Amino acid sequence: MMSLNEDLRDELAGYLDQGWSVVGYNTQLLAMGNVTHFILIQNEYALKSITFVMDRGKIMGSTITDLAPAGAAQ
């Protein structure tokens, strides 16, 4: 998880500016009004999963996971 003062929304925008495409998206409603957004982005054969856990519009946690190729450089 990223610290609360880091915002992966800016990093996601940077990936999209660099030619990455959103190829999958899912939202799950959690208890007490929390929402988790799962975003799958792709650039050629590279895949990344970006997750945001939100509470009333505020990001409570977020991650970026390299899915393919394994051990991909950022």
Describe the structure.
With 74 residues, the protein is mostly beta strands. It is built from 1 helix and 4 strands, in the order αββββ. Strands 1-2-3-4 form a 4-stranded antiparallel sheet, covered by helices on one side. Strand 3 and strand 4 form a beta hairpin. The N terminus is likely disordered.
List the helices and strands and how they pair.
Elements: H1 8-17, E1 21-29, E2 34-43, E3 46-55, E4 58-68
Antiparallel strand pairs: 1-2, 2-3, 3-4
Helix content: 10-25%
Sheet/helix structural class: mainly beta
Number of strands: 4
User: Which shape, going by the Cα principal axes?
Assistant: elongated
What is the CA-CA span between the terminal residues? 17 Å
Task: Give a quick set of tags describing it.
four-stranded antiparallel sheet; mainly beta; 4 strands; 74 residues
Summarize the model shown.
By secondary structure, the protein is mainly beta. It has one helix and four strands.
